[in-house]
Structures are given as structure tokens and as C-alpha cells.
Amino acid sequence: GRKPLDTSVAAPLHHRAKWRQEEALHESSLDCAWTILRQPTYLENFGNGEAVSAGTQLRRLRPGVVSGLLAPDEELTVIAVEDLGALAVSILERGPEAYGDRVLSAGAER
């Protein structure tokens, strides 16, 4: 698969937009506390039902397994919404210790 920082591959528009927003926040002189929680693809986007591939070029091979999204050797990092919520709560509970952090969340890679 690609290396995560492979600069020969252009980042998708929405990733570049998120990066610009993060940089603007980081460089701002806003008098407020902030923490950025970066999340990968949601696990729930790959449900077990037939509808998971409806209207796409994806093929549902068996429950929880779809093909057509990535090359066979390409890894995809996902996180369950419930796990992301728990991580967000733990960040909020850290309070000022987490201010200014950029937290990369991830679940399993497949």
C-alpha cells in the first residue's frame, strides 16, 4: 500500500480543507480552548446489509466485507462511532491538559 505521507499522491479535497482549517485554528490568536480530534473512516459505513453497496461500485462479498474500494493490498483505518465517542469523552475529561492537542484516532486496520 501507499505510505501515509507519500507526497506523490494528492490528498483529496476534503482532507486538504480540513488541514487548512486546522492550520488556521492553530495559527489564530483566539482566546479559547480547543482540541482537534482526527477520525478515520467510520466502521459503520461498511454495514452488514445489502444496502451497503447500493448505488456504488462496491460489491458485497459477505457480511462486513466489501470489495471495490481499495486495491487488495491497501489498508484502511476505521473506527466505530461508539469508540470515537468514548475517546471524545476522555479528551473532554482531560480538560486543560488536552488544550491545543491534535488527536489521531484509529480502530483496527484491515
Q: What are the salient characteristics of this protein?
A:
single chain; 110 residues; alpha/beta; two-stranded parallel ribbon; two-stranded parallel sheet; 2 helices; 6 strands; 15% strand
What does it look like?
The protein contains two helices and six strands, in the order H-E-E-E-E-E-H-E. By secondary structure, the chain is α/β, with parallel strands linked by helices. It has a domain at 31-104. The strands form three sheets. Strands 1-6 form a two-stranded parallel sheet. Strands 2-5 form a two-stranded parallel sheet. The chain is globular, with a radius of gyration of 17 Å. The chain starts with 12 loop residues before the first helix and ends in a 6-residue tail after the last strand. The model has no long low-confidence stretch (mean pLDDT 78).
The gist of it:
InterPro entries: NAD(P)-bd_dom_sf. The chain has 110 residues and is an alpha/beta fold.
Strand order of the largest sheet: 1-6
Largest sheet data: 2 strands, parallel
- Average of the residue pLDDT scores: 78
Number of separate helices: 2
Radius of gyration, CA atoms, in whole angstroms: 17 Å
Portion of residues in helices? 25-40%
Strand segment count: 6
Contiguous runs where pLDDT drops below 50 for at least 5 residues: none
